[in-house]
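INFO  loader      accepted 1 record
INFO  loader      residues=254
INFO  predictor   begin
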Amino acid sequence: MHVRRVSCRPQRQAGFTLVELLVALALMAVMAALSWRGLDGMVGANERLTAHADDVLTLQTGLAQWGADLDALALQPNTPSIDWDGRALRLLRRDSQSGAQGLHVVAWSQRLIGSSGYWLRWQSPPLTTRGELQAAWSQAARWAQNPSDEDRRLEVRIAPLLSWQIFFYRGGAWTNPLSSADTAAVAAVPATAASSGTGGSTLGNIVANSAALGATAPGARPDGVRLRLPLPTGQAVSGALTRDWSSPALGGTP
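INFO  predictor   done
INFO  writer      dumping tokens
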């Protein structure tokens, strides 16, 4: 007769011990940290690339607008079409949307905003009378010096900028617009090409006669404008940038 002996020792269940579970959790935590650092680096790189592309696109757009403003220069009797006073470049340009319905005064300048310098553009609303034109021309100069809240609403911030320089091309040479030689070369615009009018007279016939004014007023605007922009380091585009514009009437670059 055989007696079956039954063991009272409990059988070990399949699974992880507490130590093994803690080790697995520690490994998972390390892997998660490494993965997060990798994802964070990818997100940061993507943000930097996006910011770089935005900065480049903004600067390109600003330079394109610069050229468009110069291409659209309008000539007026007894009124300069372009002026550089060492702080702002003021332009009188045609309205690209409404054609002969009005003009705009445009100004470009560089100014500190906070602790950084920026290249800025200002544009007046459409102008239809001489009084509006004269007021906007003066307002553009004030904007570059000490802008009011109203002036700031009309400005656009283009790009960070350390400083800038402007040169005019006249008489076969690049000159400083503030030099006495360049100033003496600028002839006064004759008022015979259009009615001188009063402060409230309209500009419609004057805009239509811009071509005739250009033919009778050599020196009313330069043959070319050179723009030099020293861009700060740490930006998408840095170093010295030079942009030359030549009058469409020349058919080439100075």
